[in-house]
Design brief:
Layout (H helix, E strand, L loop, with lengths): L1 H32 L9 E6 L2 E6 L12 E4 H4 L5 E3 L2 H7 L2 E4 L1 E17 L5 E3 L5 E6 L7 E2 L4 E6 L1 H16 L2 H13 L4 H10 L5 E5 L4 E6 L6 E2 L6 E4 L3 E9 L11 E6 L6 E13 L5 E9 L10 E18 L10 E8 L2 E13 L2 E6 L6 E5 L1 H25 L14 H8 L1
Length: 430
């Protein structure tokens, strides 16, 4: 009897344990087969249901008032154009990213220019009579001169005769004749100090001396001692260095950005770390037909004479602000024939080439009108390799899709015969 009871209890225990194991197995299989809950999946960004290009980094409303839909990491991998790269390869390629920012962007122009003389200070020295250069005090271009310094001595028979006539009029005590003689000397270029010498010494000087009227340097010397000159001969040119011009070249697409009065900064290679601040003095009215650039004139004080003509300069002109816009580093932009794009980093080694609408370029930043949202990471180094890989992957996917569609055609369909219908031809010819 006890034996029968023991057997019954053992059988009942085995049945109970089997039921428990079966339930545990069913629960485990259901858990493994069910999709992961939305709370465990990685959300990359939110998109508008009706516009996949409208993306945000957090939940919200679309422009049409609809709730944004989350895009998960496991869904992105299946999208066309998405490239997954191993983290080691990303590191070896030196891929760098930067965030798309939102803020004010000014029409900043970065260009090059050349230092030149302030043409308002340039003086050309000519004689008003024919004659010979008997003595040349400054004999080389670039020589510095000071106001009142002797430049050259001129022998001219016309000037000698004019001095003699003046002395004759002075001795005659005829005021009208004396006045006429004095005016003739002034018309021939004789200075008031030389006339005063005639009144004082009453002797004719064979060589008339010509002096510098301003401080500066000789920018052009067109004569030598003993040469015969006429009023048309440019003897020399003198320019000041206390003020200089910087002539900058602005691209045609930026011509509307620059205006007189805007602030400008100049840097030179031979004095690294130093800057000169000035203003746009004048915008020239026409473009250079060869370089397709607009010339802009900047004016700077140069009391220390550290800026020298024909020096190469880096110029930055600060234009007006265009307001607050989304902008990314200029190096992130990949320009195409018809479509511009950037490579967006999706996280976990995933990247996608994203078409964008480009706005203005300002220094090292470029405005994005459409295609990139604030806070998104764009690739600024190695983006060309990723973009080419994305294009190849998309092309292969399209080829595979076309091949699959061709394979799915019904087997019973007969191929279309493109050969001409000879029966119709025969009917027409009979």
């Amino acid at each position: 009897m006890k034996r029968i009871i023991f057997v019954v209890v053992a059988v009942a225990a085995a049945i109970f344990i089997g039921i428990l194991i079966g339930r545990s197995t069913d629960s485990t299989s259901q858990t493994a087969g069910a999709p992961a809950s939305s709370g465990d999946r990685e959300v990359l960004y939110w998109v508008a249901p009706m516009d996949a290009n409208y993306r945000r980094a957090e939940p919200g409303k679309s422009p049409m008032g609809m709730d944004l839909v989350p895009v998960y990491a496991d869904e992105v991998d299946a999208q066309p154009g998405v490239v997954a790269i191993d983290a080691t390869i990303v590191n070896n390629l030196g891929v760098r990213t930067a965030k798309a920012k939102y803020g004010e962007l000014s029409q900043r122009i970065e260009t090059v220019g050349y230092v030149g003389y302030d043409e308002d200070t340039v003086q050309h020295v000519h004689t008003r009579v024919d004659g010979w250069i008997e003595k040349l005090a400054t004999k080389a271009t670039g020589d510095a001169v000071q106001k009142g310094q002797l430049l050259f001595e001129l022998y001219s028979p016309t000037l000698v005769n004019a001095q003699e006539e003046y002395l004759i009029a002075w001795r005659s005590t005829n005021e009208s004749l004396l006045k006429a003689s004095r005016e003739r000397l002034a018309a021939l270029g004789v200075t008031a100090s030389e006339v005063a010498r005639l009144d004082r010494e009453r002797t004719v000087r064979q060589r008339v001396r010509v002096y510098a009227e301003v401080d500066g340097v000789i920018t052009h010397l067109g004569v030598r001692e003993g040469i015969y000159v006429t009023p048309a001969t440019e003897i020399m040119s003198v320019a000041e260095l206390d003020k200089i011009w910087v002539l900058a070249e602005v691209f045609e697409r930026q011509a509307a950005w620059v205006k007189p009065g805007q602030s400008a900064v100049v840097e030179l290679d031979y004095l690294p770390g130093e800057t000169w601040h000035g203003k746009v003095d004048y915008v020239y009215p026409e473009l250079d037909p060869k370089t397709r650039t607009l010339k802009v004139r900047l004016r700077f004080d140069n009391v220390a004479q550290t800026l020298r003509p024909n020096m190469f300069a880096r110029v930055t002109i600060h234009g007006d602000s265009v307001g607050e816009v989304v902008h990314v580093p200029r190096e992130a932009l990949i320009r195409g024939g018809s479509i511009d794009r950037v490579v967006v980093a999706l996280g976990a080694g995933r990247f996608r080439a994203q078409p964008v609408q480009v706005g203005i370029e300002s220094g090292d930043r470029v405005a994005i009108r459409k295609g990139v949202s604030v806070g998104e990471l764009v690739v600024v180094s190695g983006q060309f390799l990723i973009d080419s890989e994305s294009n190849i992957g998309s092309a292969l996917a399209r080829m595979q899709k076309s091949s699959d569609e061709a394979t799915d055609e019904p087997e019973g369909d007969e191929p279309k015969d493109d050969s001409p219908d000879h029966s119709q031809h025969q009917l027409r010819t009979e």
